[in-house]
Amino acid sequence: MVVAKKMTRWQPGRLRLASGDVLRVTVHGGSVTWRRGALELVGALDDARGVELTLEHPFTELAHVFVPHLAPEDGYVMGDRIFRAPAVILAHQELALALVPDLDDVAAAEGWRAWLDYDHARRRVVLGAGAYRAEGHAFYVREPIEPSGARVNLRLHVIASRRKADCDNPYGMAARFFWERWGGRAEQSAPLSAHEAHVARWAFSDEGWSKTVWQSIELDGVRAGGPVFIVNVTQHPSVAPEAQRWREPKSIWNQAWFSTQRCANGLLRYARQIGSSDLEQRARLMTEVALAAPQDEGLFPAVLIAHGDRWGWTNSSRRPPSASERACHLVDAAFTCRMLLEWQALTAEPRALDYVLRFAERLVALQRPSGAFPGWVEPDGRITPELAESAETAVGATLLLELTSLGHERFREPSLAAVRYLEGLIADARWEDFETYYSCCRFGTPELIGRRVARNGVYKQNTLSMAWCSEAMLHAWVVARERRWLELARRSLDELSLYQAVWDPRFLPAPAYGGFGVMNADEEWNDARQSLFAPLYLELYRHMGDAELFERGVAALHASFSMLYCPENDALRRAYEARFPFFGPETFGFMMENQGHGGGIGEFTIYSWGPGSALAAAASVRDRFGDAFIDSARARAFGIDGVHVEVRGDRVHLRDRFERRALTAVYADGRRVAFRGSVSLPL
């Protein structure tokens, strides 16, 4: 990375970059100096406006723009409540520029809040210290601050590069800066196995909440079952049955968020790891739900819903008004089929592959001339106009690429056509999917679909799309070995990394480090999606060898359990019990889906989007990467689950921090070595 202190010349009011571009710098309420690659803003809160540092840039044509949050109207700002890894990024063919507030300064603030703003039309970036309020779901509006004389010290790092790789992918330049400066600080407080045990006990044991969570059902004469979609504190075991209330209708989902099949795969892995026949049987019953969804020319519904004592099929309610409940959401179906392919690999279950192939044939028949796959398809074949072509295509592309890797060559060209379509979306940073518009943040629905937010110069964006596109590009690289696809996998993941928290804010009840946000129009931290992202980071490391990727994946894996109510998460446990005094050991394993989302401690949990998805991620990573991972070819090793590693010469020294009976080191070539305590292994 080339930092700006080597590429700039500072004169009061002007920052000249090596490209010849000049940033005009003005200040309200203080003064600014240039030191060690950062503009240092110093002032006092002497008036209601607060303290502001304004930069005006000259760029009229930009290939890349990134902001950490939307500020869609004058007076709106990007508050520090979403400062996970905040940057304003501007890049053209000859210069990549990232402007980064110093998170140590933000953390030390007393009596004021930090915020950013970017007005694309006026070409103006502002870093402020003052006050703002939340409005809507979820934006921030400036407010006057009570003059107090409080001191403001706030740095804005200026990172610049003229390297072609950085101009093409300025997100990676910014992500590296964050990780080098703030990454790697978290300490693991307990082994992942302790968290997994709490989850399994809570969901599947009579000592926990299993009487509510686990649903035993019969589908067409076949025994099946699964964890219910959502439960809340009114269903605590101490509450009389007549007083318990369902937050949403009792149901079992196989959808791109709430994937019971993903959890079944993870539960099967975990059951085998601990030798539990009961949990293995539950995983098999969960898979029967997926295989029972009736196919109509390959398409199938995503949701099994209870109507009294009977169960029937429907689809996710997270859909546009133009789609009926009978419309198949292709991304949901494609994701379920990907999970069934994994199940088939784990069990050699022939029904799973047959089921997937029927869907894949229909998916190819629905492919549009652009290479995209549509969003919602009605039983009569009608395609809804909303998101008819979008980043959701990535999940279908990955499914077809996986089938191609298994020898089904007829899916090669359709999969690569979908990948070529996605190249254009990635270049445009158009990260749109169902959650972007049809979840809890409805801002811009439907008028912004396919259009940029004018004031900020970016699309409304969602992190699921970033991960899906990265995964599709990685699989395209594996199948076709075109280097540009591997680079696009990294470029997508680098932008995703700017939604990964690299610090722990005081205003959140749980540690945030390593967790992920959802989109640039909502304020979640530590959302359950980090359990989906963790294995992707680790897998991309295999192909690229950048230690940052592996470290980020491990951080995301640990963050997957950060919201778990359990004694190992002591501060969070006390916060839960302050709100719900009736919580105790029977509830260890209960988990909010995220934090910072319009409040403090949440009152509900979703097994398939929280505790169950975290367990699935941990079990999958343990199978694929072990408790420690050794990359001999790159002379590198990583601790994953409470293992300290150190490479010395041609040996790797491993030390278990938690004194467990048995651990596994996995080599990059697939070799597995059991160990305990402290050992030295050949590199």
Question: What is this structure's SSE topology?
Answer:
Layout: E1 8-11, E2 14-17, E3 22-28, E4 30-35, E5 38-44, E6 51-56, E7 64-66, E8 76-79, E9 88-92, E10 95-101, H1 103-108, E11 113-119, E12 124-135, E13 139-143, E14 151-161, H2 164-168, H3 170-182, H4 192-204, H5 210-213, E15 214-219, E16 222-227, E17 231-232, E18 251-253, H6 260-274, H7 277-292, E19 303-307, E20 310-314, E21 328-329, H8 330-347, H9 350-365, E22 376-377, H10 393-405, H11 412-428, H12 434-438, E23 452-453, E24 458-459, H13 463-480, H14 483-497, H15 530-544, H16 547-559, H17 570-579, E25 604-605, H18 611-625, E26 628-631, E27 636-639, E28 643-648, E29 651-656, E30 663-667, E31 672-675, E32 678-682
Parallel strand pairs: 26-30
Antiparallel strand pairs: 1-2, 2-3, 3-6, 4-5, 5-14, 6-12, 7-9, 8-11, 8-13, 9-10, 10-14, 11-12, 12-13, 15-16, 17-25, 18-19, 19-20, 21-22, 23-24, 26-27, 28-29, 29-32, 30-31
Helix pairs in contact: 3-14, 4-18, 6-7, 6-8, 6-18, 8-9, 8-10, 10-11, 10-13, 11-13, 13-14, 14-15, 15-16, 15-18
How would you characterize this protein structure?
The chain is α+β, with helices and mostly antiparallel strands and 683 residues long. Among the domains are: 4-182, no CATH class; 311-498, Glycosyltransferase, CATH 1.50.10; 630-682, no CATH class. The protein is built from 18 helices and 32 strands. Strands 1, 2, 3, 6, 8, 11, 12 and 13 form an eight-stranded antiparallel β-sheet that branches. A hairpin with a 4-residue loop joins β26 and β27. α6 packs parallel to α8 (330-347) and α11 (412-428) packs across α13 (463-480). It is globular. 54% of the residues are buried. The model is unreliable at 1-5 (pLDDT under 50).
